[in-house]
Amino acid sequence: MDIIKSDTKINFLRFSNVALMLSALVLIAGIVSLSVRGLNFGLDFTGGTLIELHYPEAPELSEVRQALENEGFDEFVVQTFGTARDIVVRIPVGEDGETSADVSTRVLETLSGQMANIEMRRVEFVGPQIGQELAEQGGLALLYVLIGVLIYISFRFQWRFAVGAVSALVHDVLLVVGVLSIFQVSFDLTVVAAILAVIGYSLNDTIVVYDRLRENFQTKRKGSPEELTNLSINQMLGRTLMTSLTTLLVLIALFYFGGEIIHAFAFTLIVGVFVGTYSSVYVAGSMAVKLGVSKMDLMPVQKEGADQPDTEVLPERFRNRDA
Amino acid sequence: MNRFPPWKYALLIIILGLGLVYALPNLFGEDPAVQVSSTRGFELQPQITDRVENALSTANVEYGAAEFSPQRLMIRFDNTERQLRAADALRESFGEDYVVALNLAPATPGWLSALGAEPMVLGLDLQGGVHFLMQVDMDAARTQQLESYVSDLRNILRDAGIRYRSVRVDRESVVAELRSTEDRSEAREAIERELGTELVIESFDGSQTQNLRLTIEEDYLQELQSNALRQNITTLRNRVNELGVAEPVIQQQGSNRIVVQLPGVQDTAEAKRVIGATATVEYRAVDEQNDPYEAERTGRVPPGSKLYYDRNEQPILLSREVIASGDNLIGAAAGFDQQSGQPNVVVTLDGVGARRMLEHTSENVGNRMAVVFIEHRPETRMVDGEEVPTTRRVEEVISAAVTREPFGKRFQTTGLGSATEAAQLAMLLRAGALAAPMQIIEERTVGPSLGQDNIDQGFQSVVIGFALVLVLMAVYYRVFGLVANLALTANLVLIVALLSMLGATLTLPGIAGIVLTVGMAVDANVLIFERIREELRNGNTPQASIRAGYEKAFSTIADANVTTLIAAVVLFMFGTGPIKGFAVTLSLGIVTSMFTAILGTRGVISLIYGGRKRVKSLTI
User: What ipTM was assigned to the predicted interfaces of this complex?
Assistant: First the structure.
């Protein structure tokens, strides 16, 4: 069974300008959303207190709010979480750092007085200094991954490929973050982990295309870089779609069955798989071509002999016997 | 032909066999158990097993196997009802020196445990519990230290007969104002003699005075701070023991933070109160004139004295006057006396404590001096049928020793019997006070029902994701797809085995990592199979195509996985807690998938097609 015909000859690069426009459009939309609405930063980054409670029967949110107001809380958010019987209370860090870990205790006591058998599901308190640190660490992690990739690909391929791959990654990260901003997905630590996983995934795709490109540069005598790039993308299309499909399948399972906490994580990855697949076809490939990748760049072969020869050099005996 | 060398089959079988053995313990579940350990973290004696078994027999509770280790004794029960009854009975008969905690003991069969196979450790988000991150206020620790130098410096100047205008703490240093340059150089010499190793001394001129600025020497300050952190950890450990938590984690994080993890604890308010409890020590003179037994019997305590009990419940009378307290204690270390070779504890006091200690010991050579350990233990009391949290002051004499000669800042206590006893005393002394104030800067609590939900949902998504991928692969690649499915299953077993072997903690993001790995691990097979199809289309024979498919896809797979690994490793380095779990499972999954997807599938494919001389077509 094949998803696509084995001899596809889609001229991907012909559409590269259209793709560029599309990327630019979504990017701009994302950046506009980022600058207007910003990211919906979760507790991990803003600091504050979050309490998740499970009620025996669905509570009136207004009553919950009233109870908290009476207790002297003024700035807080009460929302349902997944079901009507689960609510979360979020309380931001107080102005002069007055929020301490005790806030959660006070909220729990207040609400337990309101209805019996309220079950505490989860309490999270993050001090303001921690939020700052986590944000810094997340940013640094992103940076180090990009640098690590740049070095590895320059070493294994060539700098033009490295630049192509990294621009694809930057493109992916910006797009994903833009989409997160547009949908106002809660941006917490698991989302940062998801973005790093997207980087890993997208890179995977990019490398596979590059690898074939390198092989075609080395073995095919005819063909311009554009033609060979097109050929490589077409050759890998079946694999790219199949892997994206299996990854999407598990992510959808995670999204629907993994529970509320893992929702944002799964969503980010789903967006990331789409964006990563698209970018390895358009951004990474066309970027390398635009930077002027040529056969000469890859001629000094640094790989083991077994990989070089094309079909002609395969042991003849195999063909003769079966033919 | 596509033969696969026998040694590779052997390798495959050995690794898969090992994987199965080490993954197996996760299937056996857990037995309810009660764990007994020492409140102060001392080593248990083997006799305790008999004591526990006697107590349980008396209380008529049927019990299962008991496992003794110097850190803890674990007794298994058939059901939770017996476990709870046993815990109550043991709490009653063991009192405050022991922590009796409910626990779950892995029900791993003996032959598996003998191989070192244990189930995965579940993270707090899966088993429920409390995670605190505490920050030690190092600035406050420094200010405290500077304040103690102020009194030291005044003493030094007074003893040297140097008149000074003032000695005070000024931001991060101590400033001494003197009246003339001569006084200043004399003062400088005197201070250098006494505290030259600890302080950096600078001279500067004030508007009317000749001043000295004294700053704590950088290395010494760091030593002080790391001591403060260690002391706080010891104190926290003692306090947490009060909670009866089965497996608490108390660890240093970075230079000024402490992580406290209490699995299974739900009542955070209680946990916070206990962690915030204060303990201290006091040095007091022993009242040798009166008979403590007499005082205990009659209830008449002589004026100026107070009745205490030591650790063996024996009464002892101590003076009401405190010579030095935990606030004056800078350090306590167990070691050996250089002359006699006997075990000892060396105690260091701050300036105020040292002066008072010197005054007292000069007049009391030959008399005993006692150390009292005071704790404010949090507890709940029933008032009008409601639980009210309170704290109770508990006082206990932990040592009473004869003063042989006058001493001040540093002194040693000998005659302790054994090195273990010396270590225990030193620990108790250090536990006496928090060296620096602490603050909770992060709290993450997961209730038991959410923990269970997380496990169920995580498990469900792994199963469903896995099933979907299996179906897709089988439909799309047929025989080869089935082989890939075998590899994927083996991959899952290997990940679980590795997580169990490494003792890594499984978290919810960790499960997400496993799910993601399932989706991405087939990539290697997809690459290989697509390549084989391509080779077939190019007119190659099936055998040649298989060989070429594996060989040509290898470098692609390696490159693609190394880059993903870079991302996972960076994530591990920067991530905290649960995120680390994601990075761990992702990295392990990448490594194991390389093994199963390349070597594993090749082995099976060779079994199917390799032996035949002629293969007409491949079902791919």
Answer: 0.84
Answer whether B482's CB lies under 8 Å from A163's CB.
Answer: no
Mean pLDDT in residue range B516-530: 88
Q: Which residues of B touch A235 (CB under 8 A)?
A: 534
Select the CATH number that applies to the domain covering B6-25+447-610 from these four: 3.20.20.60, 2.40.128.110, 3.10.350.10, 1.20.1640.10.
Answer: 1.20.1640.10
**What mean pLDDT do residues A193-205 have?**
86
Partner-chain residue, chosen from B445, B518, B571, that has the shortest CB–CB distance to A193? B571
Contact between B563 and A200 using a beta-carbon 8 Å cutoff: yes
What tens digit of pLDDT does each residue of B282-307 get? 888 898 888 888 888 887 888 778 88
Q: Look at residues A126, A145, A178 and tell me which one is the last residue of a structural domain.
A: A126
Tell me the nearest-neighbour CA distance from A193 into chain B, angstroms: 7
Q: CB-hemisphere CA count at 13 Å for B23?
A: 16
Nearest to B570 among A104, A144, A190 (CB): A144
Exposure on the CB side of residue B296, measured as CA atoms within 13 A:
12
Q: Which residues of A touch B507 (CB under 8 A)?
A: none
**In this prediction, what percent of chain A has a pLDDT beyond 90?**
17
Q: Give the DSSP H/E element, type plus range, for residue B440.
A: strand B438-446
Out of A54, A130, A141, closest to residue B570 by CB: A141
Q: What confidence score (pLDDT) does residue A97 get?
A: 46
Bridge-based pairing of strands A186-187 and A40-41 is parallel
Q: How far is B387 from chain A (nearest CA, A)?
A: 13
Domain around A190: 12-38+131-298
Crossing angle of helices B218-241 and B268-275, in 10° steps, is: 130
Q: How many domains does chain A have?
A: 2
Residue A318 belongs to a domain? no
Query: Is residue A322 in a domain?
Result: no
| Interchain CB distance below 8 Å, A189 and B576 | yes
Task: Give me the pLDDT at residue A311, please.
Answer: 42
Q: Which residues of A touch B516 (CB under 8 A)?
A: 197, 247, 250-251, 254, 269
Average pLDDT over residues B183-210: 87
Answer whether A261 sits within 8 Å of B562, measured CB to CB: no
